[in-house]
Design goal:
The complex is a heterotrimer. Chain A has helices at residues 2-32, 37-42, 48-58, 64-76, 90-125, 130-144, 147-161, 177-211, 214-221, 226-263, 269-279, 282-309, 312-315. By secondary structure, chain A is mostly helical. Chain A has a domain at 99-279: MetI-like fold (Orthogonal Bundle), CATH 1.10.3720.10. Chain A is globular and about 85 Å long. By secondary structure, chain B is mainly alpha-helical. Chain B has one domain (76-276): MetI-like (MetI-like fold). Helix content of chain B is 74%, strand content 0%. Chain B has 11 helices and no strands. Chain B has helices at residues 2-10, 13-30, 32-35, 66-102, 104-119, 122-133, 137-164, 167-175, 179-215, 227-234, 246-271. In chain B, helix 4 (66-102) packs antiparallel against helix 9, helix 7 (137-164) packs across helix 9 and helix 10 (227-234) runs antiparallel to helix 11. Chain B starts with a helix and ends in a 6-residue tail after the last helix. Chain C is an alpha/beta fold. The chains are: A mainly alpha, B mainly alpha, C alpha/beta.
């Protein structure tokens, strides 16, 4: 199957190229945009000497491409530089927050993906039924809600009024697993509610599209049972669109954590990014942005790769 | 006006609800100075006064009238979101049509550029840029509009592509018509329904996006009232079981729900059975 | 006719409704139908006649957006309308099966052909998997599929269209049903491929004495396949009877019209010697991006006031030739000469006057007219663009053009294309082309999307206009009947090359090129014995 391999390799190369370009943008974005960095950070009253010293410290006196290569080289070796705000190693700042963010996203995904798929497929199979309409209105409503609205409603009902869950998800590094899960419930639930609506609508659309294919009608006219039609004829072809839906929403989830982390004061990457942006701590912003963009690019890459390898036309070339 | 009324009459209940809500919001935004008892950033009392009395919805963390801020916040947030969406459509729409109509290297170049821009999540990209440029309202509008125009570009190009391959466009090209005529007379009229629907959806996205930025403290800056930062400023009240911070958040949700309902109805109306965006 | 058995399928007062704009409208108005065991019934009619819908109703099935509202459907003593879904499921695939128009879309892309074949008998418990696969190979051989022992291991996209259609017939046969519904099984195929599929279907239906309903819009095809024919129009039965009798002696005027369609022919023109041809294509070679060559060294010429028909099957490059001439696809080498002067190769380099003199009409009138422009604007644009006509002069000319295409200006000038029928839209396209006062009109399959009777009217109109304004036509088509009707000269194309060209009489009378011969002989004729005779002749020629 040389064509398949060729396409996979092509897509992989494109993914890497995208990552490279993204890194250039994140690096150069800081360079090219108006406003002098040192002045912004040190304030207008800074003496020329301090400015010069500061520039030297950041390596700003070197030409951009040298600094870019150095920056990239360091990143690839795991050296992300130091925070401007507190002088700490960024890799140290990030590592445990990265774990927290992935942990939260994973919990949300574990709840959201199966729920969305089941509801989406059911809505598609019972198209235009009362169930489908209710689902349509509910999901339409919930994708219209800002994440912080959902979050505060959950806090109001489940934390303040009912007192079941903590409203602040201040997890510690030594915390036992289930304790950690418990504290993550509300942020995870918020993410789930937002993502499920999206994912469900996309699943429903994909399945409805598929069920309209002539080969599904043919399967009907061959007198096959409903279960057989769905398992044998619809599912193998639904794989690609469904995988696509899942991965796109995972990518959405990873970025969606930013707001939710801030609401619940959850010590993750999103919180760090927002803090650093307000402090204009540029090296940290660059590193965290690179992480989010990288996760996003890789997940999209994964979606495309899976779509390629599940396509029967490519699996069994002429 | 007549067409709006006609639209209203044939809409299902969700569509009517949406149209009604949008109309009310527009009225409130337009007549904000008349409707409000105090000035936008006027400090009138102590912080966190309860509801009732002179302060219909109490006061906020700095002692400004909540009701007044709510109305002005709507005016500001909606206005900025609307301007941003317009700009995004202007840039993305025009470039998308040009790419589809011209094809070739222009299409390739714009397509690749948009691919790369879209490879970075919008929120992250916006935060990155705003870190450097700082947040002022014009910068906010331009940055978000440019980022969002990538989505508009994709859609406009895809819609226009489907139209450009039609024989009537080929007929126009064979006749010797110029690019402008083809875009303006052949493509645009046929691209309107999906673009109008997309305008609603993009408006919702931009609106939510600006609110989220403001909520994070990185969007519209004080003392300008806006719903996102109002949620943030008064969030502590929630822990005392006070629903006041949910009001601006709910106001955001209500408007986006309304727009989405209208778009949903519009899509059904214009494309018969078209199911999802 | 061989004797046929008792009645296997009977419909009484069948009424079906379809949904349009959220409204239910009746599309089949009370059809009665009786089919005997082993008998083939042809359902024939133009689009919107309800023939496919009736065919599917014979399986107790209505497509989404359709519903059976009244009448009886009785299959071998079972009332399909009152049967439960389970009962229907036991019949479908086993006793009644279905062959769809597009085999490529109706086979599941994810499974091998043989697995899809054996699914029906295995799932219904008729055969074991092993027996079913054995049987598949037998049927594949019987249907003359190449490599019958291994072709089943392929996936649908690995097999050609004609072969897929035969594989689908085999699949329909897998449980040896009493009745098969063939729903336009050869419509999407080229004529030379169609023959093989028709022959295979006819043979296997006869072999197993299967009753069949054969749905088609092509009378000549149905003449080969059916014992009896039912003519339908707008959901009503027009005429029903023995195939031979009906073909020899149609009773209803509509049936007579359908049969008479192919009688239109233009008078032969005298040769006009040695005049510079209007358009000359010299040694044109062209390829699409990616380097696939689609035209190899093609040369043709179009004299003034004559009709040159370019005929070929899909992939012959005939439409590409049109694109090369118009400059949409600039040729790699070769020239296009207009009245002895070379035309710039690319569209963008041509002047307005050069563009004006060459106009085009398309296959699908639906997509050739901007749905958001009114007729006045559509026809008026070339008038102001090329001829600088404005105001009252332009309006008068638009009206005159509408008169020329036999449409009442007062009624139609303010309409949108969506408010016209297919034939009317094609007339508007013709008017738009004429408005430029061209010397040459390129007609790309202009009649193939239209119903037979409408197509006939369009051909007559084109001919009349040619006589009136002395315009030349380059007529691109796959349909030899159209060629016979309208051409003065014929160019036969195969795989991007011209295999034969010349005046109509020369090309159509033997001896001709081998491929022309194949093409000509493959066009179905009304004579019910045509297919059998042709196959016998070809068999003879081989031995």
């Amino acid at each position: 199957m040389p064509q398949l391999v060729k396409m996979v390799v092509q897509r992989l190369a494109l993914g890497l190229l995208t990552l490279f370009v993204v890194s250039v943008i994140i690096f150069l974005g800081v360079e090219l945009l108006p406003g002098d960095l040192t002045e912004a950070i040190l304030g207008q009253s800074a003496t020329p000497e301090t400015v010069a010293a500061f520039r030297r410290e950041l390596g700003l006196d070197l030409p951009p491409h040298t600094r870019y290569l150095e920056w990239l080289g360091n990143i690839l070796q795991g050296d992300l530089g130091r925070s401007l705000a507190n002088g700490r190693e960024i890799s140290e700042l990030i590592s445990w927050r990265l774990y927290n963010t992935l942990f939260l996203a994973a919990i949300a995904a574990v709840i959201a993906v199966p729920l969305a798929l089941v509801l989406g497929v059911m809505a598609a199979l019972h198209r235009n039924s009362l169930f489908d309409r209710v689902i349509n209105i509910t999901t339409l409503t919930s994708i219209s809600f800002p994440e912080f609205f959902v979050a505060y409603i959950l806090i109001l009902f489940l934390s303040v009024n009912a007192g079941w869950f903590p409203s602040i998800s201040n997890v510690g590094s030594e915390m036992p697993f289930w304790d950690r899960v418990f504290r993550c419930i509300l942020p995870a639930l918020t993410l789930t509610l937002v993502v499920v609506a999206h994912m469900m609508r996309m699943t429903r659309a994909a399945i409805i599209n598929l069920l309209a294919s002539p080969y599904i009608e043919m399967a009907n006219l061959k007198g096959l049972t409903r279960t057989r039609i769905i398992v044998r004829h619809a599912l193998p072809n639904a794989l690609a669109p469904i995988i696509n839906v899942i991965v796109i929403n995972l990518a959405y989830l990873v970025v969606g954590v930013v707001v939710v982390e801030v609401v619940f004061v959850y010590p993750g990457m999103g919180q760090l990014l927002v803090d650093s942006v307000s402090k204009r701590d540029i090296p940290v912003v660059q590193s965290t942005s690179m992480f989010f963009a990288g996760a996003f690019v890789l997940l999209n890459l994964l979606a495309d790769m899976l779509a390629i390898v599940t396509n029967p036309r490519l699996l069994h070339p002429k | 006006m007549k067409t709006v009324l006609k639209l209203f009459m044939e809409a299902p209940w969700s569509g009517r609800f949406g149209l009604l809500v949008i109309a009310i919001y527009i009225m409130l935004a337009v007549f904000a100075p008349v409707l409000t008892p105090f000035g936008e950033s006027e400090i009138v009392a102590d912080a966190f006064e309860p509801w009732g009395g002179a302060y219909l919805l109490g006061t906020d963390n700095l002692g400004r009238d909540m009701f007044t801020r709510l109305i002005y916040g709507g005016r500001n947030t909606i206005g900025i979101a609307f301007l941003t969406t317009m700009l995004a459509f202007l840039v993305g729409g025009v470039l998308g049509f040009v790419a589809a109509a011209m094809g070739g290297w222009i299409d390739q170049l714009l397509g690749r550029l948009v691919d790369v821009m879209m490879a970075i999540p919008t929120l992250i990209f916006a935060l990155l840029i705003l870190t450097i440029t700082g947040t002022s309202i014009p910068v906010l509008i331009v940055v978000i509009a440019l980022l969002d125009s990538t989505r508009v570009f994709r859609l406009a190009r895809a819609v226009a592509m489907n139209i450009v391959v039609m024989d009537y466009v080929e007929a126009a090209r064979l006749r010797g018509e110029g690019l402008w005529w083809i875009i303006w007379r052949e493509v645009l009229p046929n691209a309107m329904p999906p673009l109008v629907a997309e305008f609603g959806l993009r408006f919702c996205f931009v609106f939510l996006f600006i609110s989220a930025l403001s909520f994070l403290g990185l969007g519209i800056q004080p003392p300008t009232a806006d719903w996102g930062s109002m949620v943030r400023d008064n969030a502590t009240l929630i822990t005392y079981g006070d629903v006041t911070p949910l009001l601006p958040a709910g106001a955001i949700a209500l408007l986006t729900v309304a727009v989405n309902f209208v778009v949903d109805f519009f899509l059904h109306k214009t494309s018969g059975l078209r199911d999802e965006h | 006719m061989n004797t046929k058995g008792d009645i296997i399928l009977s419909m009484r007062g069948l009424r079906i409704e379809g949904q349009a704009d959220e409204q239910w409208q009746e599309i089949v108005h009370g059809i009665d139908l009786d089919l005997h065991r082993g008998e083939v019934m042809g359902l024939i009619g133009e689009s919107g006649a309800g023939k496919s819908t009736i065919g599917l109703a014979a399986m107790g099935y209505a497509r989404p957006g359709c519903r059976i509202t009244a009448g009886e459907i009785n299959f071998d003593g079972i009332d399909l309308r009152t049967s439960s879904e389970d009962e229907l499921r036991d019949l479908r695939g086993v006793r009644i099966s279905y062959v769809a128009q597009s085999a490529a879309a109706s086979f599941n892309p994810a499974h091998r052909l043989i697995d899809q074949f054996s699914e029906t008998p295995v799932q219904h418990g008729v055969k074991s998997k092993f027996e079913a696969e054995e049987d598949a190979r037998v049927l594949f051989r019987r249907l003359k599929l190449p490599f019958p022992d291994t072709i089943g291991n392929r996936y649908p996209h690995q097999v050609s269209g004609g072969q897929l259609q035969r594989a689908m017939t085999a699949m329909a046969m897998s449980c040896r049903p009493d009745l098969i519904i063939f729903d336009e099984p050869t419509t999407a195929l080229d004529v030379t491929t169609q023959i093989e599929v028709l022959a295979a279907i006819k043979d296997v239906v006869k072999e197993f004495n299967t009753a069949a309903i054969y749905v088609t819009h092509d009378l000549a095809v149905v003449a080969q396949m059916a014992d009896r024919i039912m003519v339908l129009r707008h959901g009503n039965m027009i005429e029903e009877g023995n195939a031979r009798d009906m073909l020899a002696n149609p009773k209803d005027p509509y049936t007579r019209d359908l049969l008479a369609v192919r009688t239109f022919a233009k008078d032969d023109l005298d040769l006009i010697p040695h005049e510079t041809p209007l358009l000359k294509v010299e040694n044109v070679t062209a390829s699409y991006t990616g380097g696939v060559k689609v035209l190899h060294d093609v040369s043709i010429q179009i004299p003034r006031g004559r009709t040159v028909a370019v005929v070929g099957e899909s992939g012959s490059g005939k439409s590409t030739l049109a694109r090369a001439i118009t400059g949409l696809l600039p040729p790699e080498s070769g020239r296009v000469m207009y009245e002895g002067e070379p035309l710039p190769v690319a569209l963008e380099q041509r002047g307005r006057e050069q563009l004006r003199r060459m106009q085009m009409i398309y296959q699908m009138p639906d997509t050739a007219l901007n749905p958001r422009q009114r007729i006045r604007e559509i026809i008026g644009r070339p008038l102001s663009f090329y001829l600088d006509l404005h105001g009252a002069k332009k309006e008068a000319r638009i009206r005159e053009l509408l008169e020329m295409i036999e449409m009442n200006p007062d009624e139609y000038i303010d309409r949108l294309p969506g408010e016209l029928s297919g034939g009317q839209k094609q007339r508007i396209c013709i008017a738009r082309a004429l408005a430029a006062e061209p010397d040459l009109i390129i007609c790309d399959e202009v009649t193939s999307a239209l119903d037979q009777l409408v197509a006939e009217e369009i051909l007559k109109l084109l001919q009349r206009l040619q006589d009136e304004v002395n315009v030349s036509y380059l007529f691109i088509t796959h349909d030899l009947a159209t060629v016979r009707a309208i051409a003065d000269d014929i160019v036969v194309m195969l795989q991007g090359r011209v295999v034969e060209q010349g005046p109509k009489d020369e090309v159509l009378t033997p001896p001709h090129h081998e491929y022309t011969d194949l093409l000509l002989s493959s066009v179905p004729e009304m004579d019910p014995d045509w297919l059998d005779r042709l196959l016998a002749e070809r068999q003879l020629a081989k031995t």
